[in-house]
């Protein structure tokens, strides 16, 4: 299956964002410049099952683009044989961009079968949101998107995570809306209190972005949002809903677990090193960078 991050639309978006884009026979490489240098880092995110020919082609393209390394994170379930091949081709395990496991929901099941499979608490919360009159709908209007942006930065501040800029979200939406991306909203008492962007492509539905206000959280709008997203996927004729990530112990993971998804594990992140000396320096600088970012977060948002 072709992941949304390997589509023509995603490539055009990243090109407009300022990245260099290259195509090889089976995928898309995005090159990001290292500031104040001629060097780049390449990424092949959620690409196809790589072959030796792919690796050789990617290596040639990377050298032309002055890449220190290319990070490959295939959209391929973990296989021992593939891991051995990647090692034999000279790739090394790298820092992951996506979580190594995710959740999949089988959209070929009937609505009755799906509801029955959910946890009792999840079913209760869905009914509660319906009882409160929460309304879920697909709304790709500019007004709804502006509300999505507002809720995104409210959620990022509340939960302490790093969000893409408004410019990034707007450009992404401009390229993907009504092609790959769908915006669904939850309205309560005339106010949008939750907004999600879903991706659909090649038989799969994805849940990459979600945001909500802390206001009215007792009406359980997000539980109904997930149920309506599942029904949207079925309406679009899709077969699988990928919930875009899983981290043990996290609140969003516990939320997703209520829908009885299947846990799937991917092959992980692999770095194709082009310049060994610069790669070692880069890795050390990245460790320092993330240490500083985590330290700043603790200072700005201390937990006593």
In short:
With 304 residues, this protein is α+β, with helices and mostly antiparallel strands. The chain has helices at residues 8-17, 52-64, 80-88, 111-117, 120-131, 142-159, 166-176, 221-235, 251-257, 276-300; strands at residues 20-24, 27-33, 40-45, 67-73, 92-93, 101-106, 135-138, 181-188, 191-201, 204-212, 240-242, 262-265, 270-273. The longest helix is centred in the C-terminal third of the chain and has 25 residues, at 276-300.
Describe this structure in words.
Belongs to the FemABX family. This protein has 10 helices and 13 strands. Mean pLDDT is 93; it is low at 297-304. The chain has 304 residues and is of the alpha+beta class. The strands form 2 sheets. It has a 7-stranded mixed β-sheet. Strands 1-2-3-4-13-5 form a 6-stranded mixed β-sheet, sandwiched between helices.
Shape-level CATH architecture of the largest domain: 3-Layer(aba) Sandwich
Give the DSSP E fraction (strand runs of 2 or more residues): 25-35%
- In terms of structural class, how would the helical and strand content be classed? alpha+beta
Q: Give me the oligomer status.
A: single chain
User: Strands across the major sheet, in which order?
Assistant: 7-8-9-10-11-6-12
The figure for the number of domains is 2
The fold-level CATH name of the largest domain is: Aminopeptidase
Rg to the nearest angstrom?
20 Å
Task: For the record, give the distance between the C-alpha atoms at the N and C termini, rounded to a whole number.
Answer: 46 Å
Could you name the CATH homologous superfamily of the largest domain?
Gcn5-related N-acetyltransferase (GNAT)
The major beta sheet can be summarized as: 7 strands, mixed
Number of strands: 13
Q: Outline the low-pLDDT stretches.
A: 297-304
Keywords: Acyltransferase, Cell shape, Cell wall biogenesis/degradation, Peptidoglycan synthesis, Transferase
GO molecular function: aminoacyltransferase activity
Organism: Candidatus Woesebacteria bacterium GW2011_GWC2_31_9
Family: Belongs to the FemABX family.
């Amino acid at each position: 299956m072709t992941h949304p991050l390997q589509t023509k639309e995603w490539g055009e978006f990243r090109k407009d964002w300022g990245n260099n884009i290259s195509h090889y026979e089976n995928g898309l490489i995005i090159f990001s410049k290292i500031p104040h240098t001629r060097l780049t880092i390449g990424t092949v995110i959620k690409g196809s099952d790589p072959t030796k020919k792919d690796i050789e082609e990617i290596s040639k393209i990377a050298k032309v683009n002055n890449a220190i390394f290319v990070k490959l994170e295939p959209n391929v379930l973990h296989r021992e044989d593939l891991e051995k091949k990647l090692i034999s081709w000279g790739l090394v395990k790298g820092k992951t961009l996506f979580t190594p496991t995710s959740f999949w929901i089988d959209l070929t099941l009937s609505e009755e079968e799906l509801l029955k499979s959910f946890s009792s608490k999840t079913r209760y919360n869905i009914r509660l949101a319906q009882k409160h009159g929460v309304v879920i709908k697909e709304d790709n209007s500019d007004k709804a998107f502006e509300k999505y942006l507002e809720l995104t930065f409210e959620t990022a501040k509340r939960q302490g995570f790093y969000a893409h800029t408004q410019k990034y979200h707007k450009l992404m939406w401009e390229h993907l809306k009504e092609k790959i991306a769908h915006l669904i909203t939850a309205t309560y008492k005339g106010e949008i209190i939750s907004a999600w962007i879903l991706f659909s492509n090649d038989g799969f539905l994805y849940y990459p972005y979600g945001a909500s206000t802390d206001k009215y959280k007792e009406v359980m709008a997000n539980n109904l949002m997930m149920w309506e997203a599942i029904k949207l996927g079925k309406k679009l004729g899709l077969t699988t809903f990928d919930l875009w990530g899983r981290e043990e112990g996290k609140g969003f993971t516990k939320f997703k677990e209520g829908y009885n998804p299947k846990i799937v594990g991917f092959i992980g992140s692999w770095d194709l090193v082009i310049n060994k000396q610069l790669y070692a320096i880069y890795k050390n600088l990245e460790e320092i960078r993330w240490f500083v970012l985590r330290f700043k977060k603790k200072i700005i948002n201390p937990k006593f």
